[in-house]
Amino acid sequence: MKTESDSRLFISLLGISFGLLLFFAFMLTYISNISYVLLIIVGIIVFLGLITIAGLSFTLKRAKPILKFEKPIIWMLNRLYPIVLSIGGIMQIDKDRIRASFIFLHNRLTRLKHIKAKPEEVLLLLPHCIQDADCKFKVTTDVENCHRCGGCLINNLLELKDKYGFKMEVATGGTIARRKIEDFNPRVVIAVACERDLASGISDVENINVLGITNKRPFGPCYNTTVDLNEIENVLKHVL
Fold first, then answer.
1. What are phi and psi of 213, to 5 degrees?
2. In what helix (H) or strand (E) does residue 2 lie, and over which residues does it extend?
């Protein structure tokens, strides 16, 4: 079971990123005699960053969002994600660990908003690799093409769909996933994907509540993947 500690990696790297930014700005100003205006601007950015980190830590500790600040915090997290990922790469930290930490942190902040939606306002977005690769009845255009043979999890997920009444779509990639979100315009998206695609998608989507669930890859990436059905159902119960 994931805990608060899963978010600490991303928050720590966020602090290191702001520290490095301030250090390099100071050195550049000192060495090249550039106007101190640059240092002041960077100092303001770092100050806002430290407020963000403090707000994140405080929010996670009290398990309650700071009113009117959750959206700016999530917005800033999405913008800083590529920078934190790069800094972590330079430090030779596994990128999937950083992505997983970002996803956990984003999920935690989203869940703290206690969002409630109607079934038709919830979209379960799945990767195409969750379907049996040998199945000839492809569900990327219509999930109802599934013949419910039980050869993969699509059948089980359709049973959840029948039970709760949410919308369900299968996407072949990030561009198609974003298009489906735009077409359906849901209030809540429950997205299933690998750490890379999930973190990238979460950081790109604005004004929609996204809860991410990482898939399981027993046969390697992008091939006959699976997902924890109990985790999906728990998220559904939280938002419905």
1. -130, 120
2. none
For tokens 């959750």, the residue is 70
Q: How far is CA 138 from the centre of its chain?
A: 26
Buried/exposed code over 212-224 (b: 16+ C-beta within 10 A; e: otherwise): bbbbeeeeeeeeb
82 vs 177: CA distance, rounded Å: 20
pLDDT one-digit tens code per residue, 183-203: 999 999 999 999 999 999 998
Query: What ranges in 63-173 are assigned the alpha helix state H?
Result: 70-90, 95-111, 154-164
Q: How far is the first Cα of the chain from the last one, in angstroms, to the nearest whole number?
A: 22
Which two structure tokens, joined as six digits, stand for 128?
């195409």
pTM of the model: 0.86
Amino acid in position 44: I
Report the C-alpha gap between 192 and 212 in whole angstroms. 6
Specify the 3-state DSSP secondary structure of 227: coil
- pLDDT tens digit string along 28-40? 666 766 666 766 7
